[in-house]
Design goal:
single chain, 172 residues, alpha+beta, Aminopeptidase, five-stranded mixed sheet
């Protein structure tokens, strides 16, 4: 296992520099979503609210990716993707502290709370995670999926509503 402190953050504005396998390791991303990242990444990366960094080793080889965004309403940083090469992965490698220290010390423009939010499929919070201040969020992520048929009708009893504003309706 390699030492996480060997890695350095380098900002990039191009997702094409990031090896695909780093995105493929992220359980939540499938190949279609990864293709979208590469196809539309330039739009994300050009935003001043996007924080896109690669983690490079001493030879400047890319060994990780950190993709985060500044939420100016909540005044927080939200991590979208954090992925490391397998040679640096370990439950106790300290990556969360390294990333946390890096992000809260960035000079981002708006004054932000010293909070970082992220989503994970792993709901267990270990003793090591608690020791570094990781806790379950007060908020719950909710999901809505449109289960209506393509013609706009719901699979269950639904009514079609005319959403055209009265001012735009033709006069009979």
């Amino acid at each position: 296992m390699r030492n996480i402190n060997e890695l350095e953050f380098v900002r990039t504005f191009d997702f094409r520099h990031i090896p695909r396998y780093l995105f493929e390791q992220v359980e939540e991303l499938d190949s279609v979503e990864i293709d979208r990242i590469y196809n539309f990444g330039a739009m994300f990366a050009s935003s001043p609210l996007t924080l896109l960094y690669v983690l490079v080793d001493m030879d400047y080889k890319i060994k990780g990716v950190l993709w985060a965004a500044i939420d100016i309403i909540e005044a927080i940083i939200f991590i979208r993707v954090l992925s490391l090469d397998k040679e640096y992965q370990s439950p106790t490698n300290g990556i969360l502290l390294k990333v946390g220290d890096f992000l809260v010390n960035l000079k981002t423009g708006p004054e932000l709370k010293k909070e970082i939010h992220f989503l994970t499929l792993h709901s267990d919070i270990s003793t090591e995670h608690k020791a570094i201040g990781l806790k379950r969020s007060k908020r719950t992520l909710m999901e809505w999926k449109d289960n209506r048929e393509p013609n706009g009708k719901n699979n269950k009893n639904s009514t079609k509503r005319d959403s055209t504003p009265a001012i735009n309706k033709p006069i009979k």
